[in-house]
Design goal:
- There is one protein chain.
- The protein is of the alpha/beta class and about 180 residues long.
- It has a single domain, classed as 3-Layer(aba) Sandwich (Rossmann fold), CATH 3.40.50.620.
- It has helices at about 10-20, 40-55, 70-75, 80-100, 120-130, 145-155, 165-175; strands at about 1-5, 25-30, 60, 105-110.
- Strands 3-2-1-4 form a four-stranded parallel beta sheet, sandwiched between helices.
- Helix 4 (about 80-100) runs parallel beside helix 5 (about 120-130).
- The longest helix is centred in the middle third of the chain and has 19 residues, at about 80-100.
- The mean pLDDT is about 90.
Length: about 180
């Protein structure tokens, strides 16, 4: 089976790529993350993925578009629902790319994160898979989070400190004064 794997960052790709390959499937990465802020953060994650893919022999399709204004326009009026929009945006793009490239299934490294809404990601992927006519490959990759962290350190990959959007950056770094 040939699977197109949406990659949010190099660190989160390590374990899912290993697991998919161990299962006997071919995997190709897909980078599309218009939610990441600021631009320097976006570039660091893109560069880290390029480094990882070169070291690990992973083919990656790069949709290198920094669409911050579009992302903000679509979430600024409903900040509490931003993750739902973000999951849909990236998984729809992945499903369409997978269909265009004649992949058998699509998936996402977001399933590795212990900080994301796992059930919502799964439901979103399955819904989009039905709408686009290409199955969503589901696997709970969270058990490999620590392994991915250890390998990313050994490879000297950039490791981000927040999910990616301006709102998650604020939540991570703004200290509330009480």
């Amino acid at each position: 089976m040939k699977i197109l794997l949406h990659i949010c960052c190099a660190n989160c790709a390590i374990f899912p790529v290993e697991k998919i390959k161990e299962a006997g499937h071919n995997v190709v990465g897909f980078f599309f993350n218009p939610n990441i802020h600021p631009y320097q953060e976006y570039q660091k994650r893109l560069d880290a993925l390029k480094k990882y893919s070169a070291q690990g022999g992973l083919d990656v399709i790069y949709r290198d578009e920094y669409l911050l204004e579009e992302f903000l326009k679509n979430v600024s009026h409903c900040v509490d629902e931003r993750c739902s929009y973000c999951y849909s945006l990236r998984l729809e793009a992945t499903a369409r790319e997978a269909k265009k490239g004649k992949f058998d299934q699509f998936s996402t490294t977001l399933l590795q994160s212990t900080h994301q809404n796992h059930d919502q990601i799964r439901q979103t992927g399955e819904r989009i898979g039905k709408e686009e006519g290409i199955p969503f490959y589901y696997e709970d990759f969270r058990q490999g989070w620590k392994r991915g962290l250890e390998i990313s350190k050994a490879l000297d990959l950039y490791r981000q400190q927040y999910c990616g959007c301006i709102y998650s950056e604020k939540e991570r770094f703004l200290k509330k004064n009480f």
